[in-house]
Write a structure and sequence with these properties.
63 residues; 3-stranded antiparallel beta sheet; 3 strands
Length: 63
């Protein structure tokens, strides 16, 4: 895992197409702005995990 320190309004790039910007820092919460092509899905981890579970369940029912 790469760990970076950034301040408000600073960004990091992932490849050439994904930009993550620190929008705000309040206490123990950080707000991120993510700019990515529409072809790259961006989800919070809990949403991503729910999507993966649904895909697995759907695949299991088809078998």
């Amino acid at each position: 895992m790469l760990v970076l320190s950034r301040q408000k309004d600073e960004s990091i790039m992932i490849g050439d197409d994904v930009k993550i910007t620190i929008v705000d820092v309040r206490g123990d919460k950080v707000r991120l702005g993510i700019t990515a092509p529409k072809s790259i899905p961006v989800h919070r981890m809990e949403v991503y995990e729910a999507i993966q579970r649904e895909k697995s369940e759907k695949k299991a029912k088809q078998q």
